[in-house]
Amino acid sequence: MSVFPIDDTETLSTVLPETLNGIRGVDLHLHSTASDGKLSPTELADLCHARGLTHVALTDHDTIAGVEEARQQCARHGVSLISAAELSCQWRGIGIHIVGLLPQGVSRAFESGLEILSSAREKRSREIAHRLEKIGLQDGLAKARLEAGSERPLGRPDFAAALVTAGLVPDRKAAFKRYLGTGKRGDVKMHWPELATVVGWIRDAGGIAVVAHPLRYGMTRRKRDLLFSAFIDAGGEAAELVSGYQNPDSTHDLARQLDFHGLYGSIGSDFHYPGGPLSPGTISPPPRAHVKPVWCHPAMHGFANGE
Ligand code: AMP
Ligand code: MN
Ligand code: MN
Ligand code: MN
């Protein structure tokens, strides 16, 4: 009889590498019907497995409502799933998204943070509807609710869909470009908590705060430096080095910036629905860089090792 532990090849096969370069099988930014994604948590878990992913995070906007269902289906497939959410906040009047990776699950402070975000989202929806009335969308709140097709919290994509249905814009892209995108009248940020507040909730739960898609805020490099400094002062520890498709030069430069600030790097597709350009696991290749993967963070040990 062997004195060694039973066959551990299964565990070994799920151990993650210590560099970001050449990584496959990881996607730490995915959406489901618990927020503005089109697949249920179960369908998403199935698709992640079918695409060969081994380590994933469900990061719905301001909610963990889909996590348990996704975890159960991931477990059936032998895919590791970490509890997570993508939290809305503001910094210097700019809407910022912070992914909270929660290896220990949630805390009471984190849960009450989610409640604050949920009521902020409701108030914001009313304000967006009010502002869109001025461009000719009547009963915007009811129309957005109809587009959402369920009781889940409303988001800007639902208002974009309502604008398209009402014939006020040709497509959703135009809806964001004209009315809902950064700095437009439907981009309402005033209800969101401050950056430091949401980072505090994540820390309270023993989680790791990650700046989501840092290249998508239309910031200069200098401004991003200031964002990272404020984020680190608040207790933030990581940022997404690659989010979906990125220009390789921008990614290289971002890697230098993360390295400079000593931030861990995360990766994710920000997948929302099938049929678009992205699928779970679709990201531009992470560059050769010194940036440490977020799964090398001591708090992520269990996740990285498939425990
Ligand atoms: P919200 O969380 O309600 O502020 O909505 C933000 C979501 O809107 C993002 O997570 C994307 O899913 C979507 N979104 C943001 N900008 C655009 C855009 N320019 N085109 C299409 N969808 C967008
Ligand atoms: Mn979204
Ligand atoms: Mn986002
Ligand atoms: Mn997202």
Structure overview:
The chain is α/β, with parallel strands linked by helices. The protein has two domains: 6-12 and 20-115 and 194-304, TIM Barrel; 126-180, no CATH class. It has helices at residues 9-14, 41-50, 67-77, 108-133, 140-148, 156-165, 172-180, 195-204, 221-233, 248-261, 301-304; strands at residues 26-30, 55-58, 80-82, 84-91, 94-101, 208-211, 238-243, 264-268. Helix 3 links the parallel strand 2 and strand 3 (80-82). It is globular and about 55 Å long. It starts with 8 loop residues before the first helix and ends with a helix. Residues 1-12 have low confidence and may be disordered. One manganese (II) ion binds at residues 31, 36, 61, 272.
Notable features of this structure?
globular; 14% strand; 3-stranded parallel β-sheet; single chain; binds manganese (II) ion; 2 domains; disordered N terminus; alpha/beta; 11 helices; 5-stranded mixed β-sheet; binds adenosine monophosphate; 307 residues; TIM Barrel
Brief write-up:
Helices cover 40% and strands 14% of the residues. It has helices spanning 9-14, 41-50, 67-77, 108-133, 140-148, 156-165, 172-180, 195-204, 221-233, 248-261, 301-304, and strands at 26-30, 55-58, 80-82, 84-91, 94-101, 208-211, 238-243, 264-268. The strands form 2 sheets. It has a 5-stranded mixed β-sheet with strand order 4-5-6-7-8.
